[in-house]
Amino acid sequence: MAYNEALAERVRNVFAKRKGMIERKMFGGIAFMLRGHMCCGVIKDDLVVRVKPEYYEKALTEPHARPMDFTGRPMKGFVFVGLSGYRTDKALSNWIQRGIDFASSLPQNRRHSVIQ
Fold first, then answer.
1. Average pLDDT of adjacent 10-residue blocks, the chain of 116 residues
2. Does domain 5-108 have CATH number 3.90.1150.30?
3. Is the distance from CB of 21 to CB of 34 less than 8 angstroms?
4. Domain extents for the chain?
5. Model's pTM, two decimal places?
């Protein structure tokens, strides 16, 4: 299992009414891209969230969050959220909103996006 399909479906449901969202295979899991930038994803049973640099350290202090590190070098700005951290729909939506905030703060990446 490369990624938790049930979690991926929950993420899709959060994005159901949002235009311009695309999915890509990435990091051995699935990434959800907005405006051509990754905002979140699923790797195994972890939710991956890309957060604004100024919120990265604070995000890591939250329960069930840890640096995204599967190569021996943490990827700054990316946070793994374990199962207990996204158990409720509200918690999942709150984490995903952080990724949306990050991706929305960047200019449109026309090379990797769907223009709508």
1. 91 90 92 94 97 96 93 89 97 97 86 48
2. yes
3. yes
4. 5-108
5. 0.89
